[in-house]
UniProtKB/TrEMBL annotation:
<dbReference type="Pfam" id="PF00072">
    <property type="entry name" value="Response_reg"/>
</dbReference>
<dbReference type="InterPro" id="IPR001789">
    <property type="entry name" value="Sig_transdc_resp-reg_receiver"/>
</dbReference>
<protein>
    <submittedName>
        <fullName>Response regulator</fullName>
    </submittedName>
</protein>
<dbReference type="InterPro" id="IPR011006">
    <property type="entry name" value="CheY-like_superfamily"/>
</dbReference>
<feature type="modified residue" description="4-aspartylphosphate">
    <location>
        <position position="69"/>
    </location>
</feature>
<feature type="domain" description="Response regulatory">
    <location>
        <begin position="20"/>
        <end position="134"/>
    </location>
</feature>
<keyword id="KW-0597">Phosphoprotein</keyword>
<dbReference type="GO" id="GO:0000160">
    <property type="term" value="P:phosphorelay signal transduction system"/>
</dbReference>
<dbReference type="InterPro" id="IPR050595">
    <property type="entry name" value="Bact_response_regulator"/>
</dbReference>
Length: 135
């Protein structure tokens, strides 16, 4: 698992301060850690604790990228994605699945997401994927 003591990068990165990332995960420690790590790299980050909260935050904030957990109470990642895609204002926002569950390649592929990152996260991979959508 990531921690605040984890080295943040292997080299300097340049990120626009206006790039907004929404982290949707029911695990408070993961939300807060991702927020801290990404903010230290210059991203604007907001969080949501479940899919329903995430949809409301996405409608309000219009982030450049959404990092989405699959398994959450209230509304899981698959239902979030279905509702997101049915909303023309949100459908264009890329989503990256962040999940510890193994063997979900087919399910994740069916969601039509931009990428999939496995927990525990490799920070260089996280920064590469986020940077791809925040230029």
């Amino acid at each position: 698992m990531m921690s605040a003591a984890t080295p943040l990068s292997s080299g300097p990165r340049v990120t626009p301060s206006t790039c907004h990332v929404l982290v949707v995960d029911d695990d408070r420690d993961i939300r807060e850690t991702l927020q801290e790590i990404l903010e230290s790299e210059g991203y604007e980050v907001n969080t949501a604790r479940n899919g329903a909260d995430g949809l409301a935050r996405a409608r309000e904030l219009r982030p450049a990228l959404i990092l989405l957990d699959l398994f959450m109470p209230v509304m899981d990642g698959a239902e979030f994605r279905q509702q997101q895609l049915s909303d023309p204002e949100l459908a264009r926002i890329p989503v990256v699945i962040v999940s510890a569950a193994a063997g979900l390649e087919e399910r994740i592929a069916a969601l039509g997401v931009a990428a999939h990152l496995e927990k525990p996260l490799d920070l260089d991979e996280l920064f590469e994927v986020v940077g791809r959508y925040c230029r």
